[in-house]
Amino acid sequence: MKSKKEKVYIFDTTLRDGEQSPGFSMNLDEKLRFARRLEKLGVDIIEAGFPVASEGDFLSVQEIARKIREPRIAALARISLSDIDRAWESVKDAAHPMIHTFTSSSDIHIKYMLKKTREQVLKDACDAVRHACGFTKDVEFSAQDATRTDRDYLCDMVEAVIDEGATTVNIPDTVGYALPDEFGELIAYLFENVKNIKNAIVSVHCHDDLGLAVANSLFAVKNGARQVECAINGIGERAGNASLEEVVMALRTRKDLMGLDTSIKTENIYRTSRLLTDITGISVQPNKAIVGANAFAHESGIHQDGLIKEKSTYEIMTPQVVGVTDTYFVLGKHSGRHAIKERLKKIGYNLSGDEIDQVFKRFKELADVKKEIFDEDLEAIVADDIFRKTDTYKLIYLNVVSGNAAIPTATVRMEVDGEVCQDADFGVGPVDSTFAVIKKITKTDNHLLKYMVNAITGGTDAQGIVTVQLKYDGRTVTGRGADPDIIVASAKAYINALNRIESLKEYDKGKND
Ligand code: KIV
Ligand code: ZN
Question: Over pLDDT 90: what percentage of the chain?
């Protein structure tokens, strides 16, 4: 066990700050699945949601608190006492429950948003922390917009909430405004001027509006912060939060300068990042540090030559350290059920016998049309066939006629709530006609915001992965589908988005019951 001084606590906010940003919403099953992966990754704290925001958020925090036993589970609350009661209600069954309460500390927020005086805000913050400490010893207080706050007022607030019992004080750069040395200096200032600062862990929570979230977090750590709030793939409000994988790998790779550890099992980083893109349908850019497709790809001849002679010439960390395997294990049509089962296990899926049969059947169909099957293909099958059991809509059959001398026409047969329905329609192209007939059969009408096609692996026989974003009730809902035929992948993606809307409707129904 590392001592507090040597260790940086990793507080993951993918399911709260990340999930609240447009296009990243997840349903309860997806959140639980992702929380399980975060547990395997070894994060210290999972911020599971903001229970007062909706009934759906409350229920998912509660489910995560009940099922995920290793990390501490935090629920976010404003400083109103009823918010804190609700947050406690959602996490009280956790093995290690935590309440995270916040209010704004900058004059801009106090004047325009809170419409209070500094004195009132300070008193309300103290009342809130005292109230939260009545439920649990693990209470975090955040001073929202801390980087635009008067320093002495911030010191008074931090000192007061620690006196009330806060065990973690978080200094957010809410609007991503700070520069690294300035932010580091702010943390140092707190250590010099808050007399009880040693009684709490100092945490930081940086947004990436100027692309500095990771740099700011590291400067804070250099100046004494011992908790970093971050998100997988750097998702979060606006430009996002500090990326967990970048913070962790910077600390690990430059331990010579930083001298600090985390408890992250870095070999699970890549898989966690992939799970998030699978669930949300939003990929990271290819040149994204640590988890982008090109992060370990060396294209230039000079670089390749250097690498062959000695890896350290151009590699500061190995791909294996973050779980990227450089030699793909390729399966083909001669691979048997046992090989698939073993491979699934290796990539993290312990499926039941029936589920393996299901995956194996799809694998065989795919292997008939695609020579080499990669891990990514298997993951797409698992996501499609195993984790989409409770779907309202299922595609059974799709036939499309198109070409430069035909009116693009799609015929679709699908299951709607267990009932088989079929119809045909036409459109301006094969995808348009497919979406038109699906809309007709499902009697839905949603505004299409985005349609994207990517290949999972290389080659013209690669599976196409289609991402569709629909607007529903002011929210952005993302669907994904994979298939070697991109029109089929498009239909699957569209249907996946419709199923996710159905899940959201269930949540909303729960809220009004
Ligand atoms: O960015 C921010 O200030 C937040 C707080 C709730 C910690 O997300
Ligand atoms: Zn934030």
Answer: 66
Q: Is the pLDDT of residue 356 over 70?
A: yes
The residue count for the chain:
513
Whole-angstrom Cα distance, residue 357 to residue 369?
19
Of the candidate ranges 261-265, 266-270, 328-332, the one whose mean pLDDT is the lowest? 328-332
Domain at 297-385, CATH from 1.10.238, 1.10.40, 1.10.1200, 3.30.200: 1.10.238
So where are the chain's domains?
9-280, 297-385, 393-512
Question: What is the model's pTM?
Answer: 0.78
Could you tell which of 17, 47, 79, 147 is best to mutate to test the pocket of ligand 1, judged by most ligand atoms within 8 Å of the CB? Answer: 17
User: If we measure between CA atoms, which residue out of 220, 173, 230, 226 comes closest to residue 198?
Assistant: 226
Q: What is the dihedral of CA 298, 303, 304, 306, to 10 degrees?
A: -140
DSSP SS3 for 450: strand
Please report the pLDDT score of residue 222 as a whole number.
98
How far does residue 237's CA lie from ligand 1's centre (Å)? 9
What single DSSP character describes residue 482? E
User: In CATH, which of 3.20.20.70, 1.25.40.10, 2.40.128.490, 3.10.310.40 is domain 9-280?
Assistant: 3.20.20.70
| Residue type present at position 38 | L
- List the structure tokens of 427: 């459109």
- Written out in words, the top-level CATH class of the domain with range 393-512 is alpha beta
Closest CA to 270 of 322, 317, 205: 322
Q: Determine the atom of ligand 1 nearest the C-alpha atom of 16.
A: 8
Grouping H, G, I as helix, E, B as strand and the rest as coil, residue 150 is coil
- Measured at the CA of 167, the angle between CA 156 and CA 261, to 5 degrees, comes to 115
Expressed in angstroms and rounded, the spacing between residue 236 Cα and the centre of ligand 2 is 7
Ion ligand 2 — residues with CB < 5 Å: 17
Model pLDDT, residue 366: 84
CB 469 within 8 A of CB 498: no
Ligand 1 centre distance from Cα of residue 280 (Å):
22
Ligand 1 proximity of 172 Cβ (cutoff 6 Å): yes
Q: Which residue reads 């995270």 in tokens?
A: 100
Given pLDDT bands bounded at 50, 70 and 90, which one contains residue 508?
Answer: low
